[in-house]
Amino acid sequence: MSFKIRKAVLKDLPAVLDLIQELATFENEPKAVEVTVEELQTDYAKNLFSCIVAVSDNKIVGLALYYNRYSTWKGKTIHLEDLVVTQTHRGKGIGKALLNVIIAEAKKEGVRRVEWCVLDWNANAINFYESTGATILKDWYLVQLDKKGIENF
């Protein structure tokens, strides 16, 4: 099976949303996805995030969605929001190829850290990330304020 990695274009975003939904279902949150194709397209056109896709047989089978952040300690960083490979294409090197592109971008941009989150029960992802040399920080908590929390703040 061969695949190609390339930068996403606007017409890819419906397929990107399908993969986002697949990830949400895998993570036992099938109703959590609120973003629409139109929002993705608008925000992508505004460069609010970057996205690369993996294509096999003219079908998008993987994605890495990321954006720049700034750390008060480290300076420029990249946050990898999601790295997704469709279930039928996992274990074929696509995830590693997508991550390699992100790391190459980090090197090119001179960032001091690339970071992302992984669920504590996702043993396959944890093993994959650890095999790349990534460190999983167990002493930090992820903190979020959702839309309702923001409105009630």
UniProtKB/TrEMBL annotation:
InterPro entries in the cross-refs: Acyl_CoA_acyltransferase (IPR016181), Diverse_Substrate_AcTransf (IPR051016), GNAT_dom (IPR000182)
A Pfam family assignment: Acetyltransf_1
SUPFAM superfamilies: Acyl-CoA N-acyltransferases (Nat) (SSF55729)
Record EC number: 2.3.-.-
Keyword terms: Acyltransferase, Transferase
GO terms assigned for molecular function: acyltransferase activity
Residue span, N-acetyltransferase domain: 3-151
Source taxon at top rank: Bacteria
PANTHER family: DIAMINE N-ACETYLTRANSFERASE (PTHR10545), GH14572P-RELATED (PTHR10545:SF29)
Record-given protein name: GNAT family N-acetyltransferase
Species in which this protein is naturally found: Pseudofulvibacter geojedonensis
